[in-house]
Structures are given as structure tokens and as C-alpha cells.
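Lecture notes, unit on binding sites. The following record was shown on slide 14. It pairs a sequence with adenosine monophosphate.
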Amino acid sequence: MADDLAWTAPPAGLLRPGPDFDLATFDRASTPGFDGGKADGKALTAERGLLMSELQERLFAEGRSGGERSVLLVLQGLDTAGKGGIVRHVMGMVDPQGIDLHSFGVPTEEEKRHNYLWRIRRALPRPGRIGVFDRSHYEDVLVARVDQLVEEEVWRRRYAEINRFERTVTSRGTTIVKVALMVSKQEQGLRLLERLDRPDKHWKYNPSDVATRKKWDDYQEAYSDVLARTNTDIAPWHVIPADKKWYARLAVTELVTQALIDLDPRWPRPRWRVATQVAALLRTMDPENVPTDDERSETVEDSLADEREFAEAVAGATPSAAPAPEKGSGGSEDARSDGKNDKKKDKKKDKKKDSKKKDKKKDGKKKGGKKSDKK
Ligand code: AMP
Ligand code: MG
């Protein structure tokens, strides 16, 4: 059971459609690369989410000090495929300051006056950010094709245009992670029915959803062509079975985490001297309020311990180029405990901070007051 808390193979390779890929026979209730059940999946999602969040902070810091790199998660899928759930449950695990989220609906009047890539370019992630597209330029070869919004020769040209566009985007430092969430027709029917049966879900329903559902086969064909024609090495597709929401979220978490691991973002070096700044700061502080040398070296040690755990999580957590570990062997075992330790460690740290603050208060030091007891 515990061994199910790991991928049996890296999903990036597993979910990429190969030359023989057939969307018609693709099992949308399957869980490729993961043998565990829902509880295991959720636990691993949370664990990898911690690492994703750590990596994202580094990427953000890099962007703040002149770095150009970013990640772009492109989410495609039919109604009810779970795009919103990915945004909420996966991207919700990282600091919202680091996310550039854009949802693309029916083009506005202004957008219609421009080329279809105009609104996409404007929405690309800023340096250091994780951009998220809830729908994207792919709608212009999906709904545009199925609903015949443009001539066939126009949408046919777009596959090559999109590939060129994505090449430019990646050459400027953006890693593109493309995800096609695939629900079965049966599951979509059930999810739409639930939206209708539950007043609290009515807001998610659009009467046009049934009209779109009736064009199911046309959409499958359009998706097949997208997957066949725009699955480039620089911006590969990942087709994710989406009947099990927990699996889709786990898989996207892993894909984004792995993209960040590959970027290997590092804390930027300051452009000022630490010692000079410490001296300057200390001159502005009431000496009684300055932590002791011991307390300060504890802070340094905490930080070094964090770095060590992070490095171990990155190294051990990758489901890796190597095959799945034998039962009881190292590898993912380490990754698993890292995540848990992170949480424990955070709690321990918070407690430590609290007790330090309380001590100071007892000592009759000013400031803090009731505030320091909270958190
Ligand atoms: P939703 O994601 O449920 O809010 O719906 C957004 C709607 O906008 C979907 O029906 C999409 O097909 C539609 N849409 C998105 N992009 C385009 C586009 N480029 N052209 C036409 N319709 C679009
Ligand atoms: Mg919708």
C-alpha cells in the first residue's frame, strides 16, 4: 500500500502520445504509471505539491533578479474535463503571486479584430511565473474547426503556425507543458447531469454544453489531429485520462514539478554584501531586541537544513530515468518521507517561533503583544 505512493514510471514519457496513439481506444478511466488508489494519489499530490511550491518560489526569485525563464501550462479539454479543478487543486498549491492565469473564452470584439495568436501573446507568463492557460490557441483548431468559424484552409494552416509560435515562445525561455484532459463521453454525461441536479453547480452549466456534446465525434477527430500535428519535442502533448479527477490532478502536479526540476532554479545571489547590510541594520535596532548569536546561528542552520531536504526531495523524488524501485529499497521511499518531514518541520518551526516570541514577551520586551501569540 505504502509503495503505491510513487510513480512506477515518469508520466512525462508515459502520457506523451506516440506515433501509434489512438484517441478512440484511449482508456479514460486508467491511471498510467500509478498503481495506487484515490487516497494514495491525493497523498502523493500533496507531497509533490510541496516540492512544486518550493521550486516555484525559486523560479520567482530568479525572475525578480533578472531571470527570463518561466513555465506555461496549457490546459485543454472538453466541458467537465476538469480544467477548473486543475487550476484550483494543483495550481492552488503554489503561491498565487507566482501564477499568471488566463482563461480563454469566445473572442471579444477587440480580440476578433486581431490574429488569433494576438490575445495569446499578450497572456504569456512574465519571467519567473508559471503561466496557466485554461483553454488556449488550440481552440482555434478545435471549436473553430468543428463549428466552421473559419475556412478549412485557414485552420489547416494553423497547426504549422502554432508549432512556429511555440518554438519562439520556448526559445525565449518558457517551458511549455501541454495537457489534454480526456474524459469519456459517459463520464461527461454524468458530470453535466450533476451540474444540472445541483443548484450550487448551475453556474458551471451552459445550455450550449449539450449542443457541444452532440458534436462529440467531431471534437474527438479535431483533438486527434491536434495531438498528431502539434506534438513537437520542444512542446510535447500529454494526454491525461480524466475520468478519475484525482489521477488527472496527480499527473499534472507531477508534470509541472518535473518541468521545474528540469529548470533547476536557484536562489539568486544578492548584489550587496550581507555583512555590510547586517551591520547597518544592527545599528538601527534596540540592542535588547537583537537575537543572540546562538539564536541567529540556529536560523542559519534551519535554512541549511531546508536546503538539504529540498535537494534530497529533488534527487529522490523523480520517478526517475531508472525503473521503479524494488519494494523496501531507497528511491521513492526517501521522497515520500521528505514531503512529510517538510510538513512536520514547518509545524516545528512555527512552534519554535511562537515560543521564542512568547519568551521575549515574558522578558518584558515591547512590541508583538497579542499578535505574537497567534499564527
Ligand atoms: P468555458 O471554458 O466553459 O468557460 O467556455 C469557454 C467557451 O469559449 C468554450 O465554449 C470555448 O469553445 C469557447 N472558445 C474559447 N476559445 C475560442 C475561440 N478561439 N473561438 C471560439 N470559441 C472559443
Ligand atoms: Mg463550460
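Take-home: The chain has 14 helices and five strands.
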